[in-house]
Amino acid sequence: MNELRYTLVSDGSSDAALVPILTWLLRTLGVEIAIQPNWADLGRAPLPSKPSLADKVRWGIDLYPCDLLFVHRDAERDSRLKRVEEIDAAVTEAAKRAVGIPPAVCVIPVRMREAWLLFDENAIKCAAGNRAYNHSLDLPDVKDIESLSDPKTLLYKRLKRASDLGTHRLRRFRSHQKARRVAEYIEDFSPLRALPAFAALEQDLAVVLRAFGWSVLDTWS
Length: 221
Hints:
Elements: E1 3-9, H1 19-28, E2 34-39, H2 53-63, E3 68-72, H3 80-95, E4 104-107, H4 121-127, H5 151-163, H6 167-170, H7 175-181, H8 196-211
Parallel strand pairs: 1-2, 1-3, 3-4
C-alpha cells in the first residue's frame, strides 16, 4: 500500500475546511505514506429529496472510494455519544446497500466545526487577505471555544475585522468563503488537544490506524 485514501462525508461544502485538520492528524499519528484526501461533494449523487446520513455515507463511498472514512456531524445541542450512535447506525445501514465499507471515524465538534478554527490569529488574518493586520483579534482562549454559543458568527466577525476594509468594501466581503480557507493557513493544530471532542477524535483515529497498520508509531498516548 503506497497511499492512504480518505473521504470526508459531511453536511455541507463549508465542512471541507476539516480536511487540513484530518490530514494533519494522520501525519501526526504516524502515517508516512502518501495521503489522498477527498471531501464528498454529493451534488451529483442521486440522493432523495431528504437524504438520510446513511444515504450520504453510501454515495460518498461510491463516488469517492477510500480506505478510511470520516463522517462529520456537529454535536450542537446533543451529546457526543448520541452523534456517535447516529453515525455508527448510518454506517451500518449503508453497509447493507454497498460493498466494501471502509473503517469509519466520527468527527464531532461540540458546537460547529468553526469553533476549531478560532485559535490561530495569523491564519484568520491570512484567510481574510490581510496578513499585515497588526491588531489583536481578541480570540477566546482555546479551552473555551467549544462553549461558544455561535462560533460561526464570531469567526465571520473576526475575519471582517482582520480584513480592515471600509464599510462599502465589506459589503462584498464573502465571510463564508474566507472561513473555508482558515484551516489551510494553520500549520499546527495541537492546541485543539485541549478540547475533549478533538482529543476523542485523535484517540479514535489512532486506534484505527494501529489496527490497520497505517501508522509507523509503536505507541500513542
